[in-house]
Amino acid sequence: MAPFRNLPDATVLTDPDALEPYRHDESHVLGVLPLAVVRPRGPAALKELVRLAKAEGFALVPRGAGTGKAGGCLPTGQRAVVVDFSAWPGELRVSPQDLSLSAPASALLRDVKAAAAAQGFFYPPDPNSWESCALGGTLATNAGGPNACKYGMTRHWVLSVEALLEDGEIHTFGISSVKANAGPALGQLLIGSEGIFGFIVGATLRLTPMPREYTTLLLPVKRWQDLLDLPGRLCGAGYLPSAFEFFDPAVLSELRAHGPEEARRLPGEAMAILEFDERGCTSEPFLEGLLDLLGPVAEGLEVASDERQRQGIWAVRRMTSAFLKERHPKKVSEDIVVPRSRLGEFFAGLERLGIPSVSYGHLGDGNLHVNLLAAGETEPALLERQLMDLFRLSMSLGGTLSGEHGIGLAKRDAFLALSDPGQIQTLRAIKQALDPQGIFNPGKVI
Question: Mind giving me the DSSP string for 338-377?
């Protein structure tokens, strides 16, 4: 406690019982017990923390709401202090004229989305944890979600960021406008960096008008393979869903056998949820054209007739991750990506590899949540081989080993082994330039 006795504008936790929860996030990774947890309430606390970290030789590990799935907010090594931003001050401010919203890192994403919606605007990023995750965590991990199919990842919606750097000061990168071309966009370097270059404390986000129409479809299919070319066919024909989610046969079997009542009635060998939000998507010509494109695949199609039915369809999708986690608490979920055009090749390759898994997620953008349900009972060396085979398969098809969860601790070894060496060398050079003493979230990503 001694180094933190005079820390201004902050709450400090040092009791081991209070520190224990900070060893965990929503991943399968376990961190070490930190020296302390600091909840800063202003810039003075951060400035002093940086000074102490350099002088005392401990690391600083950022944390939002702890909903990450890659271990990025967990302390490692022997001497680490967790910087919990849950008490960081700031207000949500919407600027209709600028189509922007400013918020502190501590703001919950649900409140960010609600503040935008209250004035008729839309902030699209919607990870599955959107009701409980903090904005800062979504920025640090470049979070995604179903809406990324049409609207892209978090980074596409960030105009500027405020970040703590190694000089102990908070700097602003970017402006609250869509056009800022005075040199490289350094703020984008911090989005998705998981706090290894500095800590994001606030941001200004881009907004768009709230969609006025939704068409939400539940699409069961008799043959699982019939889903796999559908994202490419839709996009090729000019239909861009705002979301295209899927459940493979194994996930559906789990839901039907053990899920809530509404899930036990789900039809089909496999199933998709499609949603469109463009103007005119509820019109007869739009639906007729869509049905013509779907052809025989649309035989069991159900269209939500009102908002209640729409929310009922989405409720099943939202609960899938929590349901599988409850049923298989030691499972490992990987969020790999393959191009839409190669989805069939991926699942054929997965079958050849014989990796026991179930899959669901964002078929519309090729971001697949591949779950190894038996990971907790699998011999560690075998599990490691299975995961590396999965990553190699996705990368061989032009994809990557993470679509939205990030690298953190969970995927660091695979990232270092499978990435272009030039990419790793560049990232390490940037890390050395921005954080020469290595105090910001060491041991993550690179």
Answer: --GGGHHHHHHHHHHHT---EEEEEGGGTEEEEEETTGGG
